[in-house]
Specification:
two-stranded parallel sheet, two-stranded parallel ribbon, alpha/beta, 4 helices, 4 strands
């Protein structure tokens, strides 16, 4: 994350505080299946990247599509393809194939003795 993006986000939020009718060009919402206490990792990571989220929803298993139907995002990203089922019904959705859930177990061939 570049420092320019962080500065632009801060400037935009300052502008919004002085102009209540202003709509953000970029709105970042975190919608995760995590709940307490695991949400803290997501928040610490974003803070370390200097990313400011406008909204954060820690659902603890609640279907993400319900929240996304209210948020109406331009695009939704998730690292678990199973979460895209309900999300893709309400928003363009993209699977990000990284993280522990997406690692494939590889059985190595037995060594020849």
């Amino acid at each position: 994350m570049s420092s320019r993006n962080v500065v632009n986000t801060k400037i935009e939020e300052e502008h919004k505080s002085n102009h209540p009718d202003y709509k953000n060009r970029l709105r970042i919402s975190i919608v995760t299946a995590r709940n307490a206490p695991y949400h803290e990792r997501a928040l610490r990571t974003l803070k370390s990247w200097n990313v400011m989220a406008n909204d954060a929803f820690f659902l603890g298993g609640v279907e993400k599509g319900k929240i996304l139907s209210v948020l109406k995002p331009h695009i939704f990203f998730d690292d678990q393809s199973g979460h895209l089922r309900s999300a893709s019904a309400v928003a363009p959705s993209v699977h990000i194939p990284f993280g522990i859930t997406n690692q494939q177990k590889v059985d190595l061939p037995k060594s020849i003795s």
